Structure formats: structure tokens, C-alpha cells
Amino acid sequence: MNANAPLDLERIRAQLGGARGREYWRCLEEIAETPAFEGFLRREFPTGASEWRDEFSRRHFLQIMAASFALAGLNACTKQPLEKIVPYVRQPPELTPGKPLYFATALTLGGFANGVIATSREGRPTRIEGNPDHPANLGAASVFMQASVLDLYDPDRAQAVLRAGEPSDWATFVSAMNAAMGDQQTKRGAGVRILTGSVTSPTLRAQLAALLEKFPAARWQQWEPLMRDNVREGARLAFGQIVETHYAFERADVVLALDSDFLFTHPASLRYARKFAGRRRVALPAGAGMNRLYAIEPTPTITGAMADHRLPVSSVEVEDLARALAQRLEISAEAVATPHDDWIAAVARDLRARPAASIVIAGESQPPAVHALAHFINAKLGNFGGTITFTDPIEPTPVNQLASLRDLVADMQSGAVDLLVMVEGNPVFDAPADLNFAEALARVKTCVRLGFEENETSRFCHWHIAAAHALESWSDARSFDGSVSLVQPLIEPLFEGKTMHEFIDALAQQPGRASYEIVREYWRSQGWTDFEKTWRSALDKGVVANSAAPPRAVTLAASAPPRAAVGAPPGAIGKTEIVFRADPTIWDGRFVNNAWLQELAKPITKLTWDNAALVSPALAQREKLQNGDVVELKFRGRALRAPVWIAPGQADHSVTLHVGYGRARAGRVGAGAGVNAFALRISDALWSGGGLELARTGETRELVSTQKHHSMEGRDIVRVGTFAEFKADPHFTEKHEEPRPEPADTLYHPGEFKYDGYKWGMSIDLNVCIGCNACTIACQAENNIPVVGKHQVSVGRDMQWIRVDGYFHGGLDNPEMNHQPVPCMHCENAPCELVCPVGATVHDNEGLNVQVYNRCIGTRYCSNNCPYKVRRFNFLEFNAGMTPVQKMVKNPDVTVRSRGVMEKCTYCTQRINAARIAAEIADRKIRDGEIVTACQAACPVDAIVFGDLNDPASRVAKLKDQPLDYWMLGELNTRPRTSYLAKLRNPNPEMKS
Amino acid sequence: MALVVLVVGVGWTTDAVFWSPYTTYVRIPQVQPVPFSHQHHVDGLGIDCRYCHASVETSHDAGLPPTETCMTCHSQLWTQAPLLEPIRRSLATNTPVKWTRVNDLPDFVYFDHSIHVHKGVGCATCHGQVDQMPLTWRENTLYMKWCLDCHRAPENQIRPRAEVFNMKWRKPDGEAALGRELVAKYRVETDRLTNCSVCHH
């Protein structure tokens, strides 16, 4: 990217300004029409990837290859090696060889659980999907949930008990802990500190409570780098106590997001996305209420991309805008003038027009005052009890985590801590830089950590205990709505890992109890009427029935929101600020060694294997920055070098750094990836801070984005309209269409397939797609798709079968963004099928375009011919060098492809076959909804629907009948089975942008 | 001329090797930890296939009996036989018995037993007269061409469902008519059976 001609942002802006109609552009290089980019476009695989550059003439080539040609085909003449077949000694009665077993369990992120159904093949977990019966996520699975199965088999995970870096064993650890805790007895535990992340596990809470009762002077601290302190403090400001706020997006006509990425980073985001999408979906007859989303944010997020109106402003300005809104709604008398008064006024009118049917939500990155303002605004709008409900805090012991960590560091510094016990976590890496956690940690007499991996913090620990993965553990957790899920293991700990319950038991001088006993004993004490029945039912369903937190009443603590106590420092607006955000693929750094997540293109920037300092085009122009230029970021006495990425939609004066990269000790996948944002993050600028200085260094760093690949040169790929246009004429998108040839107007053999049996098709609703990439990871997990690494992605060899393309529309500074998931179209007139010389890609009589791996010889003509560029080629042996443990993640129902073989989306043909076999054995037809493709299952918003087009009652047939349904590039007469529902926006007619 | 002879020779040799038991393992009894005799257990004792291959009707994998299954009888019969030592040791040490696989397909082929059994393909059709095998060998090449011979014309190989596990069943005269009748009755969709996606995914 650095080798390209520099971008002339001024010219680009002029070009976009003069644009008329619906013109979409993929990335800045495309609009800049740099010669390098044009060259890139002309060949699907970038320079050098597949070109024959040697001086041989064709004739010479044929001569020397003659011998190979003569023997061609003989490479198939290998003798199949004899294999062993190994049955059980005692076969578990529930296990039928070859059939998967499904277990309901739960996975947590930041303490909050989501229900999953984990698939076990012959005793090993291979897949994670959402549990449809679980209220927290309603069957959806985020990228983090699905990729955690790869973590289970991570060769870099902790595998032993280490004492000062040397292998030891659990028994020795236990006796050491006995001794240490025994010493603390006289001091009542005054030297003991326990540090965990956010905890919702009722069992762990009870264990810690018991421990603290025994050692009353000991302290339990909590630290999560992406903490929700502001949310809690905001509630305390508004209501005088900490309450949890719950949103019913299904009831909201209008939503205002104040720097809130509620569709992705909120603990209940999967549920909220589903409910939000339910109000986004437009079904005939027109007139059904489509909601409207306003977003104010400093950096482009998934929620902002879904917004009908988006306002990019610095983080520090959000509070002023919230106050201006409060004033307009006559909640406060504070007069606030902002540069966006008209915008706020229109939003206020819209909110007032929908009493009790709106939501104003503030993000965890905004200070407590903004949260309090949001509560007051919601109260005034009548939302309490309708779109917004409250419960007691879900975490049994919520604390202000920054204060908690500060206390701990102070104690450590003063030498008061004899024994520091850490349950997971990486504070040496992610604690605020000004606390100097590492330095304080060095003063602790004994430090003990239970960890899944040996990380930066483990280096300081005297004892390191390998943790069990969630899929190896008995535990419990609560979801955001309060529902309790039992976590059950699918496999014995691969490396004798311990759960947090066993670990805390060792401290409590009660070792020897297995997690199973600990969890059961706790729940037995909870007074369930029929314990065994409830226990079994909870394991079966994945959630304890009726355990959601009950709603409670709240009263505002004052008549008006708190005045701006510590408002934006004078002159802060207009100063460059740094913004810290959760990374959309590695979260806070815990997933940095997960290859699937590293290779996953981030939703808006499409960056892989790296983070970057996101800057606005305006800032880039001022500072004369190009993509990949390394800048030195100086923030309050700290410095960090980071490569720059120009992000259209970024607020003018904000520079975003996603946290979690740049880890010193990350394993073979994460090593060297990205830059460490935590080096700049200090305790009074946890989410943003003004006074950032940027200086060019003259260096560059290669940033790999998938954004330019497979570009489609401005054809009618994504159709976007407005809800008003749709109501006026439901068929309005067809006006954009190029004339479509007659079905019979083709060189293909028309009527070759009658399609009178099952006729498989897929419909993808662009209206609800939020671009979260859950489908991409689901497909990768289900179909054994390999990871290729940063360099291969840079030359266009990424292997994911479904990708989410992003298209911008509008000016450079605040464009609209539209997502489009692109799997194989399974064209009826498939251009790829005719050109395969060996018949490796063929059509079946249900409409699938079938790729036969064993026939493929790798000419890649099929990929050349595909207009959608959905085919992926194994240029190298991407599965080479897998350890036996890594191989365990592979799905046995899907062939693992070797080098030289083409692959692509198969509509999960293995699932179709399984369903067909089950249906035929039961002597019935396949029912609608029985086959759920991997991408469909994972999608939080239910954007992807697969089914039988010959069944008029099927969901997919009904969706394809919708007027918004269209074929991508339909004018090519490919007749794709995958079609899209056009995207609609619902802009406020009063507002112009 | 010499070139022609060479090419033809190479071609003939390749073909011969490809179809020889060296490559196909047809009729080659494989060495096993215990020289298990199907003839004795099936023909002699009358044990049904499914007693050991228990998942043949419900799964793609017919299954091999766990040590426990062998020991249902052999904990009482031939309890001291040296031949059965590997089985007893397997149970005692909780270590599975490693059998050599006789009927195997390449990893890129997905064969499902349950649907074949359901549609009236007898065990003996593919595996031969297993009840007459004192040691176990592969009866048919299991090459794709061999599978397609049936997939293209299943009426030639199909039998009534009740006879699937019957080793003694023979095609009656007029099989062609019976075959066509069963294909219709069991809803065998011949035009779909040659889709690549049926076996390769």
C-alpha cells in the first residue's frame, strides 16, 4: 500500500462532492484511481502472484512439460495406505459412532454469559453455535464465541503448573498455598489480595464470600480493561444506587446512540442486535414501522454504520450534545450551544413525537454524566417501564474497577501485599499505564496466577497454574438479563487445567473438590424444589428456567441532571484527542493468539493482523499522512509509534487506537501484531483524552486490508434506498436494474435441470446486516478453512468463503456504510462450471454448484471466470505443520483441502446431506428450517435465510418474492440462487444528511 | 514405434497394477490383533451383523464393537484362550484394540451406512459373503467406478429391507422387476445419485 502513489485527498473530496446518484466506492485508493490500484484491479491476484515471468517460450514450455503431460493422471495412482480402526473399550451409551453430540453450555466475555450449543465429535469439541433457547443471545454466536473453540486447541496455551518458570505440580502448589494462607491466619488475611475480572458466576461469588469471611482483612479486587465503570457510576448519579439498565429495542421507534456501540460491544449486544433488526426488517405490506437510528460517535463503529443519521464528533463533545438535547427536551435549563444545534433540534422533535417508544443509550466510553443525562432524557420521554427497564446489578459484587485497581496498586507499592492471587487477567499489559502495575507487582512477596496462557503478567508470577478452557470446565455464569447458565465441559482438560473454582478452593484450604462438586454444592444450597430435576433441565436447556433478574422500579435522585461538574476542559473541543476502543476482532487482547480472529477483516476498516491509528481524512490531509505512515503519538508524557489508517467517518480531531495489540508475549500467532494502545492509556483517559500530538516519522509499516481485493468497479452491487421511497413504490430498486437477458438467451443448455425436487436458495437481507463478521468465522470453523497469515492476505490469498464487503456512499468525511455478505451465488448458469477442464466444478440437480476437491488440478480458470470472485484457491499447503492437538478442531464432515485445490462456499452441503439422510430414513421431506447453514446459524440479526425455493411456505421462498429482492449482477444472466434484499435507510425528512 | 510400445507398455502396466489386489486389497485378509472369524460368529453362531456393528442403521459409521461387546461372551467362553489375550488385556488395561481397517475409503469420500441400509442395500452386496470369511478381507474394490455401477442402476443391487442383514438371501429370478419395484417403493432417486455432492463434500 505504501508503494502506491500518494492519495490526493483534496481531489478525492472534489470527485465525491460532484458525484450524482448512487455511486459507491470501496476505498480511498479506488476513488483516487491511482495507477497502482488500476493495475491491481485488472488482475484478481496481485502482481507476481500467478504470472509466468520467465523467458521460456510457450513451445519450449510445452516441450519440457511433455513428459509430465504424458504421465498426467498418474498422480492419482497411489495405493491407499492401510489404516487402523480403533473402537472404544467401553463405549459411552449416549454416543453413536459418527454422530455428533450436542451440549448446551455457556461462554463468557467480560463476565457476562451467552448460551451456546457445542458440538462434540467422538469426544472432542469442534463447533460452537448459539443456543436458540437462551434468552441472552437467542441462537446467535459472536465472532468471539465461535473462535474460542480454536483457543481450546491452541498449542501456546499454558500446559503445566509452573513455579518460577520451572514445571511443578498441583499438589506442591496446594501445600504451598496452605502454608501461605496459614501464615495469614493471624493477620486475618490482611496481606491477601484476590484480583479477578468481572464476575457473574454465583458459585465463584459464594466461594470468594466464604474465603473473605474466613479472612476478613483480605480484599477482592476486580479489573477488566474494558470496564463498565461509567455505566455504573452514571446509574448511581441518576438514581442514587447502581442499577442495571435493559433496553427493549423491539419497542423503540427511534434510537439515539450517544457513542454507544450497542450492536456489538454491549454485553447484551447479540440480543439487542436481534431485537433491533426485528424493527429494521421491512415486510410487505409497506407501512410496517421501520425504526430510525441516530448515532453520535468519534469513530466508525458497527452501530454507527447502521445509523440513518450519523454525527462524527470528538468524544468530548458528546456530553455537550447530550446537554443540548436535555435542554431542548426541557429537562434542564442549562443552555448549551453546539455547532450541531439543528441536528439536535431535529432529533429532539423526533424523540418527542414518539413518546414511550424511543431509546437514548450512552456507551461505556462516555463519562457518568452522559449516562445520567441519558437516564433523565429517557425518563422525560416516558421510556421507563416500556422500552427501558431496570434490574438490580447482575454482577453480585459490582465495584468501580478503576478504584479497585488503584487500591490494589497502592497496597502493592506499600508492600502490604504478601499474596496476590490472580484469576486470569493481564494487568501488566492492560492496566492504566500511569499505575505502573508491573513495578508494583515486583513488590509482592508471592504472586500466583491461574491463566489460560502465559502472558506478560505471568512473567512476574511465582506460581502459574494452567487454566481449563470453558469447554473443559464445570462452572456457572449469568447473562446480562440475569439468566443463570451452567457451564458444562465437553472434554477432560487437555492439559490438566484447573477451573477458577478449583483454584480458589486451594486458597480456601479445601482442595480436592472437583469443579463439578463445587458447582453442585452451591446450587444445592440455593433451595431448588427438585434439585436433580432442575439441574438436569438446566444442563439440557442451557439455562436455569426463570432465572432472569426481575424488573425493579427506580426513581431519579434529583429533579434535574447533574450540572457539568467537570465538563470539557476549555479549548478541548478542536484539540486532537486519542480514543481507545475495544478491538472488533481481538477484544482487549485476549484473542491475539487466535488465528481466525487475527485474520478476520475488521468490520469497517477491513484491516487484518494489525491495528492502526485511525485518523479522519481531514486530519490526514492536514498532517499529510498516507495509509501506513508511521506517526509518533505523544500523549501526556507518553509516546507510541503507530501506523496510520485513514478512516472515512472518523471525527475530525479524533485518533482511534484499538486496544489489545502489540503484546510482548502472545504466542506464535499474536507475536508482532499491531501496536500497544495500552502504553498510552492512563487512568484519567481510559476511553479518550485531549492533548494528543501527532508527528510523522517518515517510516512506513505495511497494513493489510482486504478492502481492495475483489473490487467490482462500480456496478450495481448494493442497492440502497429510503423507507419513504419504498413506501411510495415497493419496486423502486428495480429501476436501477440493467436489462436482464431472457432465461433462454444463453449458451448454456437451458432446461438441463428441471429442479423439481428440492431447489436450494439463500436470501440475505442487507437491511439488517450489521457487518459483525459472525458469518465469516462460522463458515471458517464449519468448513475447515485455513488461516494464511498476513503476507498471503496482502497478496490476495485470504481463504474465507464468505466475506462481508463494505461500500461507502457520500462524502469523504461522513459517508454512509453498507455491508454486504458475499458467499457463493450458486448460479444456475454458473460461469465457473463450463471452464473447468476436468469437471471438478459441476451442478447438481438441486441447484448447488458443487466443487469436487479430488478432481481439481488447479488451473484456476473457474475463479477467473467467476464474476463475484467467491472462489478461493489453496496456493500453498496452508494446513501444513499442524500439531495433533490443532487438528482436533477440524470438522470431520468436511474434506480438509490440500495445496492446489479450489474451494468455495458449498451452502453447507454436508448439512444438506445430513438433513436429507435423516429425512429419508424417517420417510418424510426435509422441513423448512431443518437445514441451517453455518452462516445463518451464527448471524445475530438473522440476515441469512436458506431453504427450499420449491416450497412456497418456506421463509426463503417468501423472501425472494419480496419486491426488494434482487440478484447481484443479475444482468450477466448467471441466475444466482443467492439473492439480496435491498437496504433501506429511514432518514428523518427534516434532516438533510 | 519404440515410443508407441513404451507408452502402451506403461499404460498396460499401470492398469494392471491399479486393478490388482496389491492396490485394491481385494481378497487379501489383513493381519489383525486377533484372527477374528466372521464365518464362525455369523454362520456358525448366528450372530446378527448389528450385534457388533451396532450403528449401521443410525449413523454413517457402522461401528466396530468395543472390547466390552466381545467380552459379553468371552468373559464366559474361551476365557483362557491365548488367541483372545489381546481382548482380555484391552479390557483389563482400558486400552482399545487397534484393528486394521479392511473396508476403507479415501478421506475425501463421505459414505453413509444408514441411508444405504434404509434403502435396501444388503451388507453382502458391498462386503461380500462375510459369513463365509474365516478371516476378513475386502470383497470389492470400493473404487468410485464400482460405486457408480450401482448408483447409476440401483435396481440391480437392491433387496427388500427385511433382507438387508440376511447373508443367505439370493436374488430371485425376475430380479429386474423386483428391483424396479423396490426402487420406486423405497423412493430411490436415481437421477440424484450421480450428483457429486452426494459423496464428496
Characterization of the model:
- The complex is a heterodimer of chains A (993) and B (201).
- With 993 residues, chain A is an alpha/beta fold.
- A 7-stranded mixed β-sheet of chain A has the order 6-5-17-16-15-7-8, with helices on both faces.
- In chain A, helix 5 runs parallel beside helix 24 (774-782).
- Chain A is globular.
- Chain B is mainly alpha-helical and 201 residues long.
- Chain B is 40% helix and 1% strand.
- Chain B starts with a helix and ends in a 16-residue tail after the last helix.
- The mean pLDDT of chain B is 94.
- The chains are: A alpha/beta (993), B mainly alpha (201).
- At the A-B interface, strand 1 and helix 29 of A face helix 1, strand 1 and helix 7 of B.
List keywords for this structure.
heterodimer, A: 993 residues, alpha/beta, 31 helices, B: 201 residues, mainly alpha, 40% helix
Note the topology.
The complex is a heterodimer of chains A (993) and B (201).
Chain A: H1 9-17, H2 28-32, H3 35-42, H4 58-70, E1 84-85, E2 101-109, E3 112-121, E4 124-130, H5 143-152, E5 161-163, E6 166-168, H6 170-184, E7 192-196, H7 202-214, E8 219-222, H8 229-239, E9 244-247, E10 254-258, H9 269-278, E11 292-297, H10 302-306, E12 309-312, H11 315-328, H12 341-353, E13 358-362, H13 368-380, E14 388-391, H14 401-413, E15 419-423, H15 427-430, H16 437-441, E16 446-451, E17 463-466, E18 475-478, E19 484-487, H17 500-507, H18 515-524, H19 531-541, E20 577-581, H20 595-599, E21 607-608, E22 613-615, H21 617-623, E23 629-635, E24 638-646, E25 654-658, H22 667-670, E26 688-690, E27 692-700, E28 704-705, E29 720-722, H23 723-728, E30 760-765, H24 774-782, H25 790-794, E31 803-809, E32 816-822, H26 831-834, E33 841-843, E34 849-851, H27 861-865, E35 872-873, H28 884-887, E36 902-903, H29 909-921, H30 934-938, E37 944-948, H31 955-960, E38 965-966, E39 978-981, E40 983-985
Parallel strand pairs in A: 7-8, 7-15, 10-11, 10-13, 11-12, 15-16, 16-17, 20-25, 22-24, 29-40, 30-39
Antiparallel strand pairs in A: 2-3, 3-4, 5-6, 5-17, 9-14, 18-19, 20-26, 21-28, 22-25, 23-24, 23-27, 30-37, 31-32, 33-34, 35-36, 38-39
Helix pairs in contact in A: 5-24, 7-17, 8-13, 11-12, 11-13
Chain B: H1 2-19, H2 21-24, H3 38-44, H4 49-52, H5 67-74, H6 85-93, E1 99-100, H7 113-118, H8 123-127, H9 144-152, H10 175-185
